Amino acid sequence: MKHEKQFFSLSFVAILITIALGASHNGSNFSGPATQFNPLYNSAEAALRSREGSRTQKKALGPVTEGRASFYSDQFHGRKTANGETFNMDKLTAAHPFLPFGTRVRVTNLRNGKDVIVRINDRGPFVKGRIIDLSTSAAKEIGLIKSGTTRVKLEALSSGQSAFIAG
């Protein structure tokens, strides 16, 4: 009877190890998030598309995502952002719902092809259907001021590591 209990527990442990090894070969990782976590990854196809080249020297860390962009109104100038810095409408910054603060993102206006690189320093936008809120300066760079909103493509270029990066 004593040996049967040991045999059962050893079998159970062997099964767990087999499952863990099988899952790790399928891409699962039990040790926590990957060191280069990028929330824009949404499929293997998107990851491949992002590596097919870029027209500038900076390569995207992850795949491309598309959606609607808007920009902050002037009334927010001088107020605190979610990461604690003071919002300056003349800097190339943006608000994103979940990208880490300090992440640099290339935003391309899909209507005219103009792009700008911004640093995430705030949370938002809080309007359904929008994926990024740009500073006034960034919005001017891509021709967004007249229309107010436009379809854009986002590419994460660098991972944000700290809550405040001057820039």
Could you walk me through the main structural features you see in this protein, from its secondary elements to its overall organization?
This protein is an alpha/beta fold. The relative contact order is 0.19.
Distance between the termini: 70 Å
Number of strands: 6
Please estimate the helix content. Answer: 10-25%
**Would you tell me the structural class of the helices and strands?**
alpha/beta
| Fourth CATH level, the homologous superfamily of the largest domain | RlpA-like domain
N-to-C SSE string, H for helix and E for strand: HHEEEEEHE
CATH class descriptor of the largest domain: Mainly Beta
The neighbouring-strand order within the major sheet is 1-5-2-4-3-6
Question: How many structural domains?
Answer: 2
CATH T-level fold name of the largest domain: Barwin-like endoglucanases
Task: Tell me, rounded to a whole number, the average pLDDT.
Answer: 74
- The coarse silhouette is globular
**Oligomeric state of the chains in view:** single chain
CATH-defined architecture of the largest domain: Beta Barrel
Q: Count helical runs.
A: 3
Main beta-sheet annotation: 6 strands, mixed, barrel
Please report which band the strand proportion falls in: under 5%, 5-15%, 15-25%, 25-35%, 35-45% or over 45%: 15-25%
Radius of gyration: 22 Å
Poorly predicted parts: 23-57, 162-167
Q: Concise description?
A:
By secondary structure, this protein is an alpha/beta fold. The protein has two domains: 1-32; 44-158, Beta Barrel (Barwin-like endoglucanases), CATH 2.40.40. The protein has helices at 2-25, 44-50, 136-141; strands at 65-71, 93-95, 104-109, 115-122, 130-134, 150-158.
